[in-house]
Amino acid sequence: MAYSSGMPLLVGLALLAFWLYCLFDAITTPDEEARNLPKLLWVVIILLLPLAGGLFWLLLGRPNGSPAQRGPFPPPRPSRPEAPKGPDDDPDFLRDLDRRLRDEE
């Protein structure tokens, strides 16, 4: 089998991508969801030990749940409660207003 000179470059790019993924995942994980160590310590471990730190993060620090359940981004915040309606958006108010206007005529 011939040795390709591009192989070290591909391995290096794969390691860089893995390191960046783990670092981004640790940074975007909410503090209370990191397991076994504080989130800041996980980020430092991933920065100092790229391959081992990333593996440790995935195995020991990442929140429980599959990536499909958790997703790459934090869950959306609950939607705000519905804003109060203005008088012109309330059908009961408009009906009552129409009735009062007719009574005046």
Architecture blueprint of SSEs:
Layout: H1 7-28, H2 39-48, H3 50-61, H4 67-70, H5 91-104
The helix-and-strand class reads mainly alpha
> What is the number of E strands?
0
Number of helices: 5
> Distance N terminus to C terminus?
98 Å
For the report, how would you describe the main beta sheet? none
Radius of gyration (Å): 28 Å
Average pLDDT taken over every residue: 82
Order of helices and strands: HHHHH
Kindly state the percentage of residues in helix: 55-70%
Strand content: under 5%
Low-confidence stretches: none
Shape: elongated
List keywords for this structure.
single chain; 105 residues; 5 helices
Q: Explain this structure to me?
A:
- The protein has 105 residues and is an all-alpha fold.
- It has a domain at 10-72.
- Helix content is 59%, strand content 0%.
- Helix 2 (39-48) runs antiparallel to helix 3 (50-61).
- The chain starts with 6 loop residues before the first helix and ends with a helix.
- 12% of the residues are buried.
- The model has no long low-confidence stretch (mean pLDDT 82).
